[in-house]
Amino acid sequence: MKNYNRMPEKFLWGGATAANQYEGGWDEDGRGPSIADILTGGSVDKERRLTPPAPLPEEFYPNHQATDFYHHWKEDIALFAEMGFKVYRFSISWSRVFPNGDEETPNEKGLKFYDNVIDELRKYNIEPLITISHYENPLHLSLEYGGWKNRKMIDFYLRFAKVLFERYKGKVKYWLTFNEINMLTQDFGAVFCAGMLDPKDVCEQSRYQAMHHQLVASALAVSMAHEINPEFMLGCMLAYHNGYPYTCHPDDILYAQQFGQIHNSIAGDVHVRGYYPGFAARYFEEHGIQLEVLQEDKEILKKGTVDFFTISYYSSSCVSVTKDGEKTAGNGSDNLKNPYLKASDWGWQIDATGLRYVLNQIYDRYQIPIMIVENGLGAVDQLTEDGKIHDDYRIEYMRRHIEQMKEAIHDGVDLIGYTCWGCTDLVSASTGEYKKRYGLIYVNKNDDGTGDFSRIRKDSFYWYKKVIESCGEEF
Fold this sequence. Notes:
This is Glycoside hydrolase family 1 protein. By secondary structure, the protein is α/β, with parallel strands linked by helices. 38% of the residues lie in helices and 12% in strands.
């Protein structure tokens, strides 16, 4: 008889990072600049800004060094192994492999770095989960081609993906084609997801056209990967936007449904079902969006559906047709505050029960395996005089979410993995800050540029180690 109170024995516990927020070494060994490298540091009194076409000497660019995985990879992977990771999600910097993005031949020094990382992970029996494109398009592709609104990006992406698939076909099983592809339904996604630097491209027409090109590229990559190695598992990755109706007025109920359809299900349906849902056509018509869709795109999308579904989940919010009410922050959103929830230091509302709701919603719709590949708490951590970080708030956040993961599995959801964000401190994508810390490992680096990049285990490090050792029994 199945024990519903236990996690699956082969559950993939681990952590997640992204090259642009963690790796550093931005101009070493032939790497070219990415769009992340022209994003300035941010703070409460200084908005994070783009400074194209190149970094300015008077500005601070935290992504250039990030938290220096490029020179600490062996040390960090040993720490991941100490925690007992079964899987580690990371991205490969496109401009480290193809410095401009449109070259014919990859940068061998860049690939060698990832050879070392993957081999070190395998030494500890940690499964690599690679995100091919995670908010770091080569800057040259933005300046020369305008980013993903240009269909030529598909070929450049596929050349990059093919190099990775062929080089690591015996070493890597799990792949994600794009990070949070559905962020292109919002203004936030124009630069981060699509590398479109022209302010005019913040419009819906450009964003949805860029998303279409990425969906086609994803489907072609999935088909290519399965041909190169039938054992490859290819997944999509969405920033799951959980918006509750602000009131029980029928208009708010309908608006919340439509919010989820647009921000979650358009991209999800194309990835999993292989076609645009019916409501997308009405939305495009009513918003004056005219996608350039080639005849062969329909067959490409139908053929290149994903094997599993992954999400980032940090918080939830409320939505209303009136848009009246106090706003709250979130992962790429600024919807209405839920009076029943507490929030993080950055105003992201903490809603562990919402994770169970979301997992059931996804699985009911798609019936394929699900993995949570980002979930964590950004907070101000205090280093004590004796060199420790007592982050009980982070432990409580993760504990409550893992509890709801177990409930979702009991509900019948096929949940196969969890990689907390970020397993080590890194640069916040939204604010460009070091002080917004997510890690279970503290990295000594600060927003004023000070710090020696030394690593310190937080209390959450030891707690998560016990969670993994017990497969979720001690949490």
